[in-house]
Specification:
By secondary structure, the chain is an alpha/beta fold. The protein has three domains: 10-162, Chitobiase, domain 2 (2-Layer Sandwich), CATH 3.30.379; 168-509, Glycosidases (TIM Barrel); 540-735, Alpha-d-glucuronidase, C-terminal Domain, CATH 3.90.1330.10. It contains 21 helices and 23 strands. Strands 7-12-13-14-15-16-17-18 form an eight-stranded parallel β-barrel, surrounded by four helices. α9 crosses α10 (325-336). It is globular, with a radius of gyration of 27 Å. The two termini are 22 Å apart. Residues 1-11, 65-86, 705-719 and 728-736 have low confidence and may be disordered. This is Alpha-glucuronidase. One of its GO terms (molecular function) is alpha-glucuronidase activity. Residues 160-474 form the Glycosyl hydrolase family 67 catalytic domain.
Length: 736
């Protein structure tokens, strides 16, 4: 049974997500001074004015060159020097030269610049101060105050400096301009239609795009690619005669510090320019890209650059001309360089026409084999964008070895916020903990750098495939908003605790959960944490075990199909037979993939004894009776975790039902989440029954004896809702 069809709610009832009016109450009830000028400062002023109009505060804007009014700065005796103190303003946001008099008075030691997006935050003498060198920093500082709420205006706190760890924090929209006959309006989109496009033309809903820009800026995202990396015929034309549509989107995103990027077709010189070739070393091709890029910047002066998927899954690329991917990327980087643009060149390159009979081929090896010989050959404004794992956004896979093997190349780590393989926004699956694990992974062991530090040191980026769409709740499942929010926050600071980030999102999105609210609010907060904190691991429990991955239905990738990809050309195999399962990727007897990692991980993954249980089947083919580190056998782990996962989802469903009476959740949002939990529970049961039945039949091994009673007697069995028979005791193990 497939999943229900996603439908969109009316666009004029868009949910406020993490920026409801109530989240601005603390700031909006205060007296605010904004000092500085420019587009982004004007955005801060408008945001502050809207908040103060709703909540009773006031705003004064002092542009560059203006002298502050005599009563503007508390405690300064009317000098207008910006000194914090007791008096006219509760919050001062000051930019650049206008901020200079406030640094020392706020107790902030000026020991260098804050950069293009950084800011300093302090509270002293009854005044909260945000100081920045550049307008973007003031915008991000403003939203930091919104996140803090009343805490921003409570006790004094010492100066804090905040700067993003990664200079580019980007969303890739897999949106099509035309409705594609297979992938529809949004490829792998689970939130209705595109925010930007509809039926071949640009959407006219500018308010929706502005609201989206606010949400992204509030969590730290500063770049968006507005079309699918699989660039079809109409999307190819966005580079030339449809460029006005892209410029219109850029105009809407610019006031929130977000630069537009465009996914381009590598063969554009042929498709658009009438050239006979797209060879990156051909002089006519180089000239075509240079002139085309010049025209792009004439229309969009702050254009971010290009995103390219080449020589992958049917997309054209430099291999067609006998050229390397460095030569292909450098062609576009050269065209972008005079304007400060960047090309994001995706490392998702592999043979999708493999012979499933040949166990020597291994899709996991592909990115490393293709790209590591090219380290140091990419131009400085070319960023190699690699998926966080070597396969394809699975619920569990190891960190890609590419991220530790290219020290002379700028690297971007790519995540998938849209839940292609993690429940497609029908299932609660908070991905913050997964991303945090990846960003904190140390490829060279405990004394080495983390993945986040590698990307930051290279001048790279963090990128996610967007999970937002034209649905009323932005992400289809309202709780999936937390993934979009968490991506932005972790991209700004990868060291953040993902559960603390989730708590931020809860507090902002559900104002009844704020600390000043009732016991009911704390029940709601507790319920959401109980449902979401471990939801990624819950999803992992009832789907693919021990890192094996890809047990999904081909095509739409929803629901279980253990052998769905086992005999296809995509290279996603588990090799289950009567004796065991898993893929041998060792150097000793397998594909040699473990050798792509530096020590100590190359040895850890190679060793059957040392390999982490959660990745065992990714690296090793083992008997069903192989003992895990926790003492369970592989087959028993499969049985037990699939039952445990379903039971966890059932508890989620019950917990959500019990918060309805408190009235702190909008009725429509409550109903949407309840309906999605119903589907999640149905689908989890389907996963449990198909996976457990498959491996029971394959292995011929039944459950161990009951942990409670020592045995499960026939008279103790009872049927469940699907007609299967279970033990009556706590273990609830199934009988076949």
């Amino acid at each position: 049974m497939g999943k229900p069809v996603t439908t969109s709610d009316p666009a004029d009832e868009v949910h406020d997500a993490w920026l409801p009016s109530e989240s601005f109450r603390a700031l909006g009830a205060r007296r605010v001074l904004v000092r500085g000028g420019g587009t982004l400062v004007e955005t801060v002023v408008r945001e502050a004015e809207a908040a103060c109009e709703r909540h009773g505060g006031s705003v004064r804007h002092q542009a560059h060159g203006d002298r502050a009014p005599a009563d503007s700065v508390p405690g300064d005796g009317g000098s207008g020097d910006g000194t914090p103190g007791d008096g006219a303003f509760d919050l001062i946001l000051a930019l650049g030269r206008a901020a200079a008099p406030s640094w020392a008075a706020a107790g902030i030691e000026r020991d260098g610049t804050l950069g293009a997006e950084g800011y300093a935050l302090a509270r002293r003498g009854g005044v909260t101060v945000v100081l920045a060198d550049e307008p973007a920093g003031l915008l991000y500082g403003f939203f930091h105050v919104v996140r803090l709420g009343e805490a921003a205006f409570a006790d004094a706190f010492a100066a804090q400096r905040h700067e993003p760890a990664l200079r580019e924090r980007m969303l890739d929209h897999w949106d099509n301009v035309d409705v594609h006959p297979v992938t529809r309006q949004v490829e792998r989109g689970y939130s209705g239609g595109s925010i930007f496009w509809r039926d071949g033309v640009a959407r006219g809903d500018h308010d929706r795009v502005r609201a989206y820009a606010r949400l992204l800026a509030a969590c730290g995202i500063n770049a968006v690619a507005v079309n699918n990396v699989n660039v079809h015929a109409t999307e190819t034309r966005l580079l030339t005669d449809r460029l006005g549509d892209v410029a219109a989107i850029a105009d809407l995103l610019r006031p929130y510090g977000i630069r537009v990027h465009l996914s381009v077709n590598f063969a554009s010189p042929v498709a658009l320019g009438g050239l006979p070739t797209a060879d990156p070393l051909d002089e006519a091709v180089r000239s075509w890209w240079a002139e085309t890029t010049r025209r792009v910047y004439a229309s969009i002066p702050d254009f971010g650059g290009y995103v390219v998927k080449a020589d992958s899954e049917g997309q054209p690329g430099p291999f067609g001309y006998g050229r390397s991917h460095a030569e292909g990327a450098n062609l576009l980087a050269e065209a972008l360089a005079p304007f400060g643009g960047t090309v994001h060149w995706r490392a998702f390159v592999y043979d999708h026409r493999q012979d499933w009979r040949d166990r020597s081929t291994d899709r996991a090896r592909a990115a490393y084999d293709h790209f590591t010989p090219l380290d140091g050959l990419f131009r400085q404004n070319a960023v190699l964008q690699a998926k966080y794992g070597p396969m394809d956004f699975q619920a569990r896979e190891p960190v890609s070895p590419v991220l530790a093997a290219m020290p002379a190349t700028r690297l971007a780590v790519e995540f998938q916020a849209t839940q292609e393989y993690t429940g497609q926004q029908w299932h609660v699956c908070y991905l913050g903990p997964l991303w945090s694990e990846v960003l904190g992974f140390r490829p060279w062991g405990p004394d080495g750098r983390t993945v986040a530090e590698v990307a930051a040191a290279s001048g790279g980026a963090l990128v996610a495939v967007s999970n937002a769409g034209a649905d009323r709740f932005w992400t289809g499942h309202p709780l999936a908003q937390a993934n979009l929010y968490a991506f932005g926050r972790l991209a700004w600071d990868p060291r953040l605790d993902p559960i603390a980030v989730l708590d931020e999102w809860i507090t902002l999105t559900f104002p009844g959960c704020s600390s000043a609210q009732s016991e009911a609010g704390e029940r709601l907060r507790g319920t959401l944490h109980a449902m979401m904190d471990e939801s990624w691991r819950t999803y992992e429990q009832y789907t693919a075990p021990l890192g094996v991955g890809f047990m999904v239905r081909p095509g739409h990738h929803y629901g279980p199909d253990v052998d769905g990809y086992e005999y296809t050309s995509w290279g996603t195999y588990h090799f289950a037979d009567r004796d065991g399962l898993g893929v041998d990727r060792t150097r000793a007897t397998g594909t040699g993939f473990t050798g792509q990692y530096p020590k100590p991980w190359s040895d850890t993954y190679e060793s059957l004894d040392q390999c982490p249980d959660e990745l065992l089947l990714f690296f090793h083919h083992v008997p069903y009776t192989h003992l895990l580190h926790n003492g369970s056998t592989v087959i028993q782990h499969i049985y037990d975790t699939h039952f445990s996962g379903v039971e966890r989802v059932a508890r989620m469903r019950l917990a959500w039902e019990q918060i309805e009476a408190d009235g702190l959740v909008d009725r429509d949002l409550f109903a949407r989440v309840r309906d999605r939990l119903d589907e999640q529970l149905r689908c989890a049961r389907e996963w449990r029954d198909q996976i457990n039945t498959y491996f029971h039949r394959k292995s011929g091994i039944s459950y161990q004896r009951c942990a409670d009673t020592g045995a499960c007697c026939a008279e103790e069995r009872r049927p469940d809702e699907n007609g299967a028979s279970h033990c009556r005791c706590r273990c609830r193990r199934i009988f076949f």
